[in-house]
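Retro notes (design track)

What went well: tokenization of the new backbones is finally stable.
What didn't: we kept losing track of which sequence belonged to which structure.
Fix going forward: every design gets posted as structure first, then sequence, in one message. First example under the new rule, 349 residues:
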């Protein structure tokens, strides 16, 4: 797959819970000072090693962390421009978060702290699946896009839609769909990006919460956060029962433009619903293959790919933070417009 890289900035709709600090891009976060010692910089990044510590940081501290992160991971941040710092709140959790523009794609990314967290769901969680057995994982910080990759970002990088075609009329701000992991890997290779491991995905979705969804335990609150199967869906979907929810979220049998709903406490949109998002690693039982420290990668090829987050045709249970959606080789090669992805970039200590 050969792609040409050209792109203009994508405007992402602001989260309703965010407090914009209105800093000038790259003014508060300058280049590393001449003669900066890498070990000294690393010691200044301790708050990025553990989310619970990071959550106590104020705006100025997060600006300092952003500056030092760019000094420490110079190569990784070379394609990004600092934009601003905002505070995001959902599910009883809040963080100040630095936001970065990825210049080649025009997508906004956030710098997320790492930390130790528990994947999976407790036995008491309604509609829990057997493969959600809880598992402790330790992650390094990483950068991740605030939205699912849009058609605009995809086509401006590839130069064409190829065999895909956009089945949903209208905006190029819609998330790219109908791509499989192989397509995503090729796109990421050309942009020097990646897409989240399953552990990174659940961690970024939860944003410090331990509830069924990142905004809490009450699924009815998803009307503010997620495009799911709802009463706007086709009548035959509604009649099936258990597929659609009993509210009107404004969308029928189609995805919403990126960023149309409220975001989680990491400033991420559409982690529940809209499109099911591909993960980098293959599906394994948590007890069979352990997640690596750092990226959370589960190494190996099980023959089954997986996606997370649910989509516009699924119910609230399928959009739970812990829910794992498996897909065989057929669907993982693309062609299903309920699947998309969210770009990311590892930052390893």
């Amino acid at each position: 797959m050969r792609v040409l890289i050209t792109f203009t900035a994508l405007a992402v709709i602001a989260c309703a819970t965010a407090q914009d600090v209105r800093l000038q891009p790259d003014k508060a976060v300058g280049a590393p000072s001449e003669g900066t010692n890498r070990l000294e910089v690393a010691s200044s990044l301790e708050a990025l090693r553990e989310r619970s510590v990071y959550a106590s940081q104020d705006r100025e501290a997060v600006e300092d962390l952003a500056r030092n992160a760019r000094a420490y991971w110079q190569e990784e941040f070379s394609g990004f421009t600092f934009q601003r710092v905002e505070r995001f709140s959902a599910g009883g959790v809040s963080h100040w978060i630095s936001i970065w523009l990825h210049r080649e794609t025009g997508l906004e990314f956030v710098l997320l702290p790492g930390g130790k967290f528990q994947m999976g769901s407790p036995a008491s969680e309604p509609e829990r699946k057997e493969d959600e057995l809880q598992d402790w994982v330790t992650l390094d910080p990483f950068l991740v896009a605030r939205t699912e990759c849009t058609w605009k970002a995809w086509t401006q990088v590839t130069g064409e839609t190829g065999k895909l075609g956009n089945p949903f009329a209208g905006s190029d701000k819609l998330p790219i769909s109908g791509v499989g992991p192989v397509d995503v890997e090729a796109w990421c290779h050309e942009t020097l990006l990646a897409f989240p491991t399953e552990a990174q995905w659940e961690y970024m979705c939860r944003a410090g919460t331990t509830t069924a969804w990142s905004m809490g335990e009450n699924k009815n609150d998803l009307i503010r956060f997620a495009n799911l199967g709802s009463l706007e869906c086709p009548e035959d979907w509604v009649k099936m029962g258990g597929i659609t929810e009993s509210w009107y979220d404004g969308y029928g049998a189609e995805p919403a433009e990126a960023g149309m709903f409220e975001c989680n406490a990491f400033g991420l949109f559409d982690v529940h619903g809209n499109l099911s998002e591909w993960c980098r690693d293959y599906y394994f039982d948590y007890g069979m293959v352990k997640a690596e420290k750092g990226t959370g990668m589960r190494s190996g090829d099980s023959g089954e790919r997986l996606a997370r987050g649910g989509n516009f045709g699924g119910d609230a249970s399928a959009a739970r933070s812990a829910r794992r959606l498996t897909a065989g080789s057929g669907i993982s090669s693309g062609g299903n417009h309920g699947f998309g992805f969210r770009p990311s970039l590892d930052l390893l200590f």
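Added context from the reviewer: The two ends are 32 Å apart (CA to CA).
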